[in-house]
Specification:
This protein has one domain. It is globular. By secondary structure, it is mainly α. It starts with a helix and ends with a helix. The mean pLDDT is 89. The chain has a two-stranded parallel ribbon with strand order 1-2. 73% of the residues lie in helices and 2% in strands. It has 9 helices and 2 strands.
Length: 188
């Protein structure tokens, strides 16, 4: 249970990091991004190592679930660190532009999908009830985090974000946004 709290504290640090990008309270809060991510990662590893399980699956099925968790994690990392310019997204705070192509044509916060499925498939692979709790609790915190970003932070820090909000779904992609996503990858 303590690791669930530790991961939740990581999300709180991410909230402070975003708040600081808008209000410029102090440059020291820039490090909260890395600390927050590190807390979530450490808590995730420790929960994964927890031997308490509610069920088990055959070795080959667990392997498939681990593979799906890995692919989901890759998608999340790509959405957060590959599809976005790192320095402008996580360090620089002025004159940033909204990314509207690739996975960001699909929905405004595609990383949430990778995050959820990473933990969900880890739960299915391990039967670890704490992993399921992390999946539910942290996905709720992640959705709250991106909603706050979407409503308060990004319109103030990203040029063109208000137009992006009107043209691209928040989380639940649709036929049009799927078509836009595929189309933007074909242009590359």
């Amino acid at each position: 249970m303590g690791y669930l709290v530790l991961g939740s504290m990581g999300f709180l640090l991410l909230y402070v990091f975003d708040y600081n990008k808008v209000k410029r309270v102090h440059d020291i809060f820039q490090i909260f991004f890395m600390i927050g991510i590190s807390l979530i990662a450490y808590a995730s590893i420790m929960i994964h190592l927890n031997p308490i399980t509610t069920f088990s699956v055959h070795f080959w099925l667990a392997g498939i679930f681990y593979l799906l968790a890995f692919v989901s994690g890759l998608f999340m990392f790509y959405a957060l660190f590959g599809a976005l310019p790192f320095k402008q997204t996580y360090i620089k705070t002025k004159d940033n532009h909204t990314i509207t192509t690739g996975v960001y044509a699909l929905c405004r916060h595609p990383g949430v999908w990778g995050f959820f499925f990473l933990y969900f498939f880890l739960y299915l692979a391990t039967g670890n009830i704490l992993m399921l709790a992390a999946c539910v609790l942290w996905t709720i915190m992640d959705i709250l985090h991106v909603w706050i970003q979407d409503q308060y932070f990004f319109p103030k820090t990203l040029k063109g974000y208000t137009d992006y909000q009107q043209n691209t779904p928040f989380l639940l992609f649709n036929r049009h946004s799927l078509k836009q996503c595929v189309s933007s990858f074909k242009r590359v």
